[in-house]
Design a protein that fits this description.
This protein is an alpha/beta fold. It has 23 helices and 14 strands. A 6-stranded mixed beta sheet has the order 6-8-9-10-7-11, with helices on both faces. Strands 1-4-3-2-5 form a 5-stranded mixed beta sheet, covered by helices on one side. Strands 13-12-14 form a 3-stranded antiparallel beta sheet. The N terminus and C terminus are likely disordered.
C-alpha cells in the first residue's frame, strides 16, 4: 500500500534528512526565549551615586571609559579602588542629573574631566537621546514572551483538537458524535418492548431510503420527531436503530453540550451542526435531553434576549424552519419532560410528531430479557417469563442491569451458568439495593423485623384483591431491615377501589403485627406509613374514591405557575379539612381490617415469624405451606455448613464462625 501523498514527489533512495517537527520547533523557540529572558535578568546593574560624588570622581580621575550623558541621568564606569565602591559592587554607576538646568554644564564637565585626566581618568563623554520607546522596550519584550508561552502551552493545546479554527474558533464548533452508516450496527432487532413506537417511525425510514416516493403525491414527511418517555425506556436506542435501518449517518449531541459560559456559543454550535448534517444528507440528527435548551421561554429569573439558553433555542427553531423539501435530514429529539418544552418546538413544521416510548409491559419485558439473556450463559432452568412478571415498572435499562448483575454474581460464585437464583437476587439488588448479610442485628430487632414482615406476608397471602406474594425476607437491604416482595400477575394500568384498599391493608400488616405480638410499635413502619398516606391521598384527591367528596379532582395542576402552587390552593379550608378526614378514614378502616385478619390468624403469623428467624428468607409456596400447618422441609444455613463439614471439607477451607471459637456458654 502506497502511503505517499499524490502531490509529493517520490522519495529518492538514501536516508531521510531529519526535519524539525512543529512541536520540536516550538520547544526550541521556547527554550531560546527563556534563555534570552534569563540573560536579560542577569545583566549587570548600576550603583546609584549622588551628583557631588560624580563631580568628585571626575576631578580625581576615577572615571574610566566613556561617560554617557542622557536627558535626566549620567552613566559611566569607575576604576578599581574607587572610594565608595566595594569589590562586591558593580563598576558601573548612575546618577540622576538634569543637565539642562545648567547653562555651563559642558564647560564644567570638560574642566572636571581634564583635571582628572592628569590622574589617569578619562576625558571622553557623549550625549545619548533615545525615543520614548527605548525605556518601554524591555517590558514589552518580557510581556510578549510571557504571552507566547501562555499561547504555546495552554491555548494552542486546547485548540489542537478542533482543526484550523484555533482555540477561540473551536467554541463555536459543534461537539456532536458522528456514527457513519458503516459503523452503525443497531437495528430493530436490538429494540424490543416498544413495538408501537417502532411501527410509527417506519415512515421516516422509508423517507430516508426513498424520498421520491413521498414527493410523487406532494406529501411532506415530518422533519422533527420527539421521543417522549421515562429514563431508560430506549429512546436513544430507538434513534440509533432508525439510522441503522435507514443506513444513514447518525449525528448525536446532548442539549447541555450547546450551552457554554460565552453568549452566542450555543447558537453557533447549532448552526455548525445543521450545516454539517446538510452536507452529509441523508442523515439523522439526534438531540438528547432537548429540555436542557428547549424549556418554555418567559419563565424564571432570566428571560431577556441575551439569555444563552434562549438564543440556542431560537437557533434550533430557525434551522428547522430552513429545511427545504429536498433536504433529507430528520431531527430526532428525546426528553422525559414534555411538559416543560416551549410550544414553538412542538408546533407543526418542527417537532410535530410526538412518539411515546412507554415502559415495557410483560410481553415487552420478556422480549427485552431474551435479548440480554442471549449474551450470557444461562442455565436451562432459567424462567424468563417469571422474571418478566416479577419486574413491573422496570425499564429496558433496568432489565439490562438485572441480567448484567446476575452474570457478575454467577461469575463471583464460580458458576458455569447464570441460574434463576442469580436473576432473582439481581432483581432485588437493582430495585431495592444490595443485601447486607454482614450486618450485625440484635436478637430483639431481628424478632421484631420477623413479625413485621410476617404481618405483610400473611395479609398479602390472605387478601384475594392484593398482588400475589412472591417471597419475604428479613435480610437487610439498603436502608430496609427486611422486605416482602409481590409478583403481579399483570401490569396494572387501572387501580380499582378493592385493590387500593387491599394494598392499604398489606401496608399496615407490619405495624399491626408489631403491636399485637411485640407489645410495642417501632419506626420500621415509616416507609409503609408514607406509602399508605400517598395512596390514600391519591384515592381522595385524584381518583374520586371518597363518597363525601365525590368524583371531583382536587389535585393541583403541576404545570400551572411552574408547579409553585402551595398544596390545597385549589379548594377551600373547609374542603381541606374534609380531605384530611377522608384520608384518615381510609387509613383507619385499613388498620381495623388488618387487625381483624391478623387476630383471626395469629397462630399462622407466629409460625411464619419463627420460620423467618430460622431461615431468613421464605418463598410464597413456603409461606403458604406454613400457613396451612404443614412442616417445612428446608435446610438452614447451619445445616448446610454441617453438611459441607461431613462431606470431607478440610478445616482450613471451612468458614470460621464465632460459635466455633468461643466456649460453649452451657
Amino acid at each position: 500500500m502506497n502511503n505517499q501523498s499524490p502531490n509529493r514527489p517520490p522519495r529518492l533512495g538514501g536516508p531521510t534528512p531529519p526535519r524539525l517537527t512543529r512541536s520540536l520547533l516550538g520547544w526550541v523557540v521556547a527554550i531560546a526565549l527563556a534563555l534570552a529572558l534569563l540573560a536579560f535578568a542577569r545583566m549587570p546593574g548600576s550603583k546609584p551615586i549622588t551628583p557631588d560624588a560624580f563631580w568628585t570622581y571626575a576631578r580625581n580621575g576615577n572615571l574610566k571609559g566613556k561617560v554617557i550623558v542622557r536627558e535626566k541621568e549620567i552613566q559611566g564606569e569607575v576604576g578599581p579602588n574607587t572610594p565608595g565602591f566595594s569589590a562586591a559592587d558593580p563598576p558601573r554607576f548612575v546618577v540622576n542629573y538634569a543637565f539642562s538646568a545648567e547653562n555651563d554644564f559642558d564647560q564644567r564637565l570638560q574642566e572636571a574631566l581634564d583635571a582628572g585626566a592628569s590622574r589617569g581618568g578619562t576625558t571622553k563623554y557623549e550625549y545619548e537621546f533615545a525615543g520614548w520607546w527605548a525605556g518601554a522596550l524591555p517590558s514589552l519584550v518580557l510581556m510578549l514572551g510571557v504571552f507566547f508561552l501562555l499561547w504555546f502551552f495552554v491555548f494552542r493545546r486546547m485548540g489542537a483538537g478542533g482543526g484550523g479554527a484555533g482555540f477561540l474558533g473551536n467554541f463555536g464548533r459543534s461537539r456532536h458524535k458522528v456514527t457513519t452508516k458503516e459503523q452503525s450496527t443497531v437495528t430493530f432487532d436490538n429494540v424490543a418492548g416498544i413495538n408501537e413506537a417502532k411501527e410509527e417511525v417506519g415512515e421516516i425510514i422509508e423517507f430516508l431510503k426513498n424520498p421520491k416516493k413521498f414527493h410523487r403525491l406532494g406529501g411532506r414527511i415530518p422533519r422533527g420527531v420527539l421521543l417522549v418517555g421515562e429514563p431508560g425506556c430506549g429512546k436513544t436506542l430507538l434513534a440509533k436503530a432508525i439510522a441503522g435501518e435507514a443506513n444513514v449517518p447518525f449525528f448525536s449531541i446532548s442539549g447541555s453540550d450547546f450551552v457554554e459560559m460565552f453568549v452566542g456559543v450555543g447558537a453557533s454550535r447549532v448552526r455548525d451542526l445543521f450545516k454539517q448534517a446538510k452536507d452529509n444528507s441523508p442523515c439523522i440528527i439526534f438531540l438528547d435531553e432537548i429540555d436542557a435548551v428547549g424549556r418554555r421561554r418567559g419563565h424564571g429569573f432570566v428571560s431577556g434576549g441575551h439569555d444563552e439558553r434562549e438564543q440556542t433555542l431560537n437557533a434550533i427553531l430557525v434551522e428547522m424552519d430552513g429545511f427545504d423539501t429536498s433536504d433529507q435530514v430528520i431531527v430526532i429529539a428525546a426528553t422525559n419532560r414534555m411538559d416543560v418544552l416551549d410550544p414553538a418546538l412542538t408546533r407543526p413544521g418542527r417537532f410535530d410528531r410526538q412518539i411515546i416510548v412507554p415502559l415495557p409491559d410483560v410481553g415487552g419485558r420478556l422480549e427485552i430479557l431474551k435479548i440480554y439473556a442471549a449474551k450470557v450463559r444461562c442455565s436451562p432452568d432459567v424462567d424468563l417469563q417469571r422474571m418478566a412478571r416479577g419486574t413491573p415498572m422496570f425499564s429496558g435499562a433496568d432489565l439490562e442491569a438485572l441480567v448484567n448483575e446476575a452474570a457478575i454474581a454467577a461469575t463471583m460464585a464460580n458458576k458455569e451458568y447464570v441460574e434463576q437464583a442469580d436473576l432473582e437476587e439481581a432483581r432485588d439488588k437493582v430495585r431495592w439495593g444490595r443485601a447486607r448479610k454482614s450486618r450485625v442485628i440484635d436478637e430483639n430487632d431481628k424478632r421484631v423485623t420477623a413479625y413485621h414482615e410476617a404481618g405483610h406476608a400473611l395479609t398479602q397471602l390472605l387478601l384475594p384483591d392484593a398482588d400475589p406474594l412472591h417471597k419475604v425476607s428479613i435480610i437487610p437491604r439498603a436502608n430496609m431491615g427486611g422486605a416482602t416482595f409481590s409478583l403481579p400477575e399483570k401490569d396494572r394500568y387501572l387501580f380499582s377501589l378493592k385493590y387500593c384498599k387491599a394494598q392499604l391493608c398489606v401496608l399496615f400488616g407490619g405495624r399491626v403485627a408489631e403491636e399485637i405480638f411485640c407489645g410495642d410499635i417501632t419506626s420500621g413502619a415509616q416507609s409503609d406509613i408514607a406509602q399508605a398516606t400517598m395512596l390514600a391521598r391519591k384515592m381522595v384527591l385524584d381518583w374520586g374514591m371518597s363518597p363525601r367528596l365525590g368524583a371531583v379532582n382536587y389535585a393541583n395542576d403541576p404545570d400551572q405557575f411552574n408547579g409553585m402552587l402551595p398544596p390545597g390552593s385549589k379548594y377551600s379550608e373547609k374542603t381541606a379539612e374534609t380531605v384530611d378526614a377522608e384520608v384518615r378514614l381510609l387509613i383507619d378502616e385499613a388498620g381495623a381490617a388488618t387487625r381483624k385478619i391478623i387476630q383471626e390468624n395469629n397462630h399462622q403469623l407466629g409460625e411464619i415469624a419463627k420460620a423467618l428467624i430460622k431461615y431468613e428468607t421464605l418463598s410464597a409456596e413456603e409461606v403458604k405451606q406454613i400457613a396451612e400447618g404443614r412442616e417445612l422441609d428446608k435446610p438452614t444455613v447451619d445445616d448446610l455448613l454441617l453438611r459441607e463439614k461431613t462431606n470431607g471439607q478440610s478445616h482450613a477451607d471451612r468458614p470460621v464462625k464465632l460459635r466455633d471459637v468461643l466456649p460453649d456458654p452451657g
